[in-house]
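Module 6 notes. Inverse folding takes a fixed backbone as the condition and produces residue identities as the prediction. Think of it as a translation problem where the source language is geometry and the target language is the twenty amino acids. Below is one complete input and output pair. Work through it position by position during the lab.
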């Protein structure tokens, strides 16, 4: 039997299952320092492990009303920067650990759920209520274990497990509403707009709208008959009485939110289980947006004398409704239309929407219809993404002795996305010239992602003579990923069959309904040998060593295999005799580590010479599409970390602090090559980037007695990013940013704004020598003195009060010293081509005559992109506030059914303090392009156990 088991273990490969158990309160550093932490492939106590790890308890995430758990992590751990690129329910966030260490590679950390590496950025099907804890691995001692996948950090998630005892049910539900967070729509109202149009007409003669067309001050109207002038006056009076609030048209002020969850757990010492079902529905604050999710999880644990097994299964399904063209300046984007639409535009007449396609039937309109056209597009189209995601892992462990065991796991991560977009036939949007045949459109796309992860290994862990604690482990890991996608877009939709492929008209050269079909597939494999050792002497000195050898199919054969390592040491100074008498010091521990890891490619075969389909002389052909590079390699990272753990005054004041230096070498770059080669560039490794910073996590119990406790804390991270070298590559620009040695990645690079000449009203710009000019030249004048999109400081502040059965908690997150390009103002303060749309009130303070002192040029002045469009996007946000009341035990007991009950109210994204003038300062890129803002969500909930 043992031989058969050993043979099976040698063949099977998987990541070993890990779990966490906590006893008593987890808000004290004493428990933090002694608890079992997740380190990857193994578990250890804090005193055995010297890595930089931040643990976020699941209780801090379980009830937050957000669909994607990565957004919940913002401000929860020092060094973990989270920025949401969209407020659409279910949207994923940008997550960066200890600064951006690449230019064109991936910045996303590796996510591991119950030992399975899962796809990053795909979390809307996962229920955070199932999470027991989230561990953020930051230094090389932690990430070197993951080798070529660990350079961006690792986020390990453990889910809840059943406990031996009586069968216990828990029911949670919460309901509420979502609202827009801020009302910074600094656009003109009807009176201002009509007056603006008249004034601009007088100043420039340009036609900007009805306020000038029908004005009695317009010279073109001077010779008109009196009856016509009176008609024009009535038109202006009629328009002046219309005050359409487009914010209320496109955005919901009370979008409903509902969530239900039922879980059960229990079992015996031999068999335990945890099962949970969740239903989540959130309407978005924008019309036609929202998410509906169904998720189910079952975790089963089996324990015998020498053998343990865990089977974890989870499946989730979401239906996500999205708005059109988010993050673009197009009028079909709801968030842009809110700004563009004129306030004197009346969208409905007798209950019918009047748009560009039917306005002639109503006698025409005197506005641009941008608001109504965007509303018509919402009503005549759909954009849905349905996602099915499932994970399965089996974790097996066999104890040969009390100190030697074998472990083996097998894990799967599967996702299927179905994207459906339609534009109905017979509608204005369905008849646009951009649609072949002008009879509607239907598109369906499917994407499948599959990842198989497996590890087997042996672990030796023993305490010798009560002073030596030794752990040795070795594993073999194999990871396989496959991805495929396809999409079909058809036209000529048959009325009554819109929304299905069957409604598509077969295309031909005669009818013009030529469909489009596209798709692709890719895959990769990774094989690894892993070894780790931990040694603890007299509970005072700690040594950690890790080693990993990776071989990946995404790397050329010459660089396919590489070794990674980390060495760390810890020293518990409190164990020294001279500190034994210092009772006020509870913990004083120093840590240090150094190691290597690597960053994966942004695409699986970036090194390979590529070929693509084309046409030659009317016949199908294959042509080169990428030059390839047989020397292409990973980006390699070297990290040094020192830290201290401190607890004083009976553990009432707790501090965890780290300093790190992270250097990435062999940065992914595109090298310009001669056009005679047939290519413009090839991918190479060149240069280095350094991230250096400090992380502080400080907390304390201000009041701590039987009836009242008040604890508070904050975490803050400082990260300084710098391009150290570009190898043989010259500095280069990326949009409005520059990559230059000595500067941070993502440094803004643009012409410096010089204000307005008070005599001429012309815009002024600074030359590089500091002189002012009215000539604009982005090539010769651009400078890099306007900051970056990456914050210098990030963190969170929390305070919790418990009084008898009441508890209250507030949590703030912040990001400081970051600057973004606010393109929204470029479109709202632009006389070049956008003046027919509604504009910013800042136009009311424009230059009009010599001597005017203003920052807004004359309307006749061309609009250029300058540093005045770079705004400070620093913010402090009241991320969450909760008030809860636990029903007294004596009252609950009387029900003879319930074991506990709690009611609560909470608010998410309640307040934002910022000087940013756009929708939302928080974003995952450098440019604000009318993105969906974060919502304020207020809910009331009930949690009962029976």
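Target side of the pair, the amino acids:
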């Amino acid at each position: 039997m043992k031989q058969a088991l050993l043979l099976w273990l040698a063949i099977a490969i998987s990541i070993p299952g890990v779990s966490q158990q906590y006893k008593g309160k987890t808000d004290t550093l004493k428990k933090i320092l002694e608890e079992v932490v997740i380190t990857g492939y193994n578990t250890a106590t804090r005193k055995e492990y010297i890595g930089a790890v931040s643990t976020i308890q699941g209780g801090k995430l379980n009830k937050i009303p957000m669909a994607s758990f990565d957004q919940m992590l913002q401000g929860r751990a020092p060094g973990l920067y989270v920025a949401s690129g969209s407020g659409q329910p279910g949207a994923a966030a940008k997550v960066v650990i200890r600064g951006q260490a690449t230019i064109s590679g991936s910045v996303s950390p590796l996510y591991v759920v119950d030992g399975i590496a899962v796809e990053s950025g795909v979390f809307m099907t996962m229920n955070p209520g199932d999470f027991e804890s989230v561990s953020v691995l930051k230094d090389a001692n932690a990430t070197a274990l993951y080798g070529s996948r660990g350079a961006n950090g690792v986020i390990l998630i453990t889910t809840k497990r059943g406990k031996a005892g009586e069968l216990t049910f828990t029911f949670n539900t919460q309901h509420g509403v979502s609202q827009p967070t801020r009302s910074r729509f600094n656009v003109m109202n009807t009176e201002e707009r009509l007056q603006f149009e008249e004034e601009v007409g007088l100043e420039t003669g340009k036609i900007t709208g009805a306020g000038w067309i029908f004005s009695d001050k317009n010279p073109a109207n001077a010779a008109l008959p009196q009856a016509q002038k009176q008609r024009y006056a009535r038109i202006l009076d009629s328009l002046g009485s219309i005050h359409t609030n487009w914010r209320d048209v496109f955005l919901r002020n009370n979008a409903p939110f509902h969530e239900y969850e039922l879980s059960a757990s229990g079992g015996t010492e031999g068999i335990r289980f945890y099962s949970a079902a969740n239903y989540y529905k959130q309407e978005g604050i924008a019309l036609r947006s929202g998410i509906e999710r169904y998720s189910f999880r079952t975790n089963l644990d089996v324990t015998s004398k020498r053998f343990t097994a865990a089977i974890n299964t989870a499946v989730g399904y979401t239906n996500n409704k999205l708005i059109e063209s988010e993050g673009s300046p197009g009028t079909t984007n709801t968030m842009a239309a809110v700004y563009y639409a004129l306030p004197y535009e009346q969208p409905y007449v007798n209950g019918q929407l009047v748009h560009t396609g039917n306005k002639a039937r109503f006698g025409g309109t005197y506005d641009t219809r941008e608001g109504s056209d965007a509303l018509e597009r919402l009503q005549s189209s759909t954009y849905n993404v349905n996602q099915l995601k499932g994970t399965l892992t089996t974790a097996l462990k066999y104890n040969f002795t009390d100190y030697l065991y074998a472990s083996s796991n097998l894990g799967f991560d599967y996702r299927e996305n179905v994207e459906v977009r339609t534009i109905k036939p017979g509608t204005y949007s369905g008849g646009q010239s951009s649609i072949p045949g002008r009879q509607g459109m239907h598109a369906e796309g499917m994407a499948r992602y599959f990842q198989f992860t497996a590890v087997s290994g042996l672990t030796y862990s023993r305490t010798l003579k009560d002073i030596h604690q030794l752990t040795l482990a070795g594993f073999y890991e194999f990871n396989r990923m496959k991805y495929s996608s396809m999409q079909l877009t058809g036209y000529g939709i048959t009325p009554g069959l819109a929304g299905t492929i069957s409604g598509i008209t077969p295309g031909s050269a005669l009818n013009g309904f030529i469909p489009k079909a596209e798709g692709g597939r890719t895959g990769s494999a990774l094989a690894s040998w892993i070894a780790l050792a931990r040694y603890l002497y007299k509970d005072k000195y700690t040594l950690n060593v890790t080693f990993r050898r990776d071989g990946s199919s995404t790397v050329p054969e010459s660089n396919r295999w590489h070794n990674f390592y980390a060495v760390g040491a810890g020293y518990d100074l409190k164990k020294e005799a001279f500190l034994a008498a210092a009772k006020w010091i509870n913990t004083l521990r120093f840590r240090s580590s150094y190691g290597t890891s690597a960053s994966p490619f942004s695409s699986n075969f970036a090194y390979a010479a590529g070929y693509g389909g084309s046409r030659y002389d009317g016949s199908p052909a294959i042509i080169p599409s990428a030059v390839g590079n047989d020397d292409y390699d990973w980006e390699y990272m070297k990290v040094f970390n020192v830290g201290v753990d401190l607890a004083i005054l009976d553990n009432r004041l707790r501090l965890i602090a780290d300093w790190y230096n992270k250097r990435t070498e062999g940065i992914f770059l595109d090298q310009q090559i001669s056009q005679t080669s047939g290519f413009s560039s090839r991918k190479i490794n060149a240069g280095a980037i350094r991230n250096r910073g400090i992380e502080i996590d400080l907390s304390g119990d201000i009041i701590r007695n039987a009836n009242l406790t008040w604890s508070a804390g904050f975490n803050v991270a400082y990260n300084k990013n710098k391009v150290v070298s570009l190898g043989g590559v010259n500095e280069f620009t990326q949009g409005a940013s520059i990559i230059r040695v000595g500067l941070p990645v993502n440094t803004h690079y643009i012409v410096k704004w010089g204000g307005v000449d008070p005599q001429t009203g012309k815009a002024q710009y600074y030359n590089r020598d500091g002189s002012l000019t009215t000539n604009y030249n982005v090539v010769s004048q651009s400078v890099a003195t306007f900051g970056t999109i990456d914050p210098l400081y990030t963190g969170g502040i929390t305070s919790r009060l418990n009084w008898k059965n009441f508890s209250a908690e507030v949590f703030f997150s912040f990001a400081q010293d970051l600057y973004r390009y606010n393109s929204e103002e470029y479109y709202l303060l632009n006389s070049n081509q956008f003046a027919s749309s509604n504009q910013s009130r800042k136009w009311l303070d424009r230059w009009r005559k010599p001597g005017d002192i203003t920052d807004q040029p004359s309307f006749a002045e061309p609009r250029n992109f300058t540093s005045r469009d770079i705004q400070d996007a620093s913010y402090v946000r009241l991320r969450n506030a909760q008030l809860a009341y636990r029903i007294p035990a004596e009252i609950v007991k009387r029900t003879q059914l319930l074991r506990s009950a709690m009611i609560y109210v909470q608010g998410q994204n309640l307040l934002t303090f910022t000087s940013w003038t756009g929708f939302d300062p928080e974003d995952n890129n450098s440019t604000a392009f009318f993105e969906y803002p974060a919502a304020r969500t207020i809910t009331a909930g009930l949690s009962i156990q029976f």
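Reference fact for the lab report: The two ends are 43 Å apart (CA to CA).
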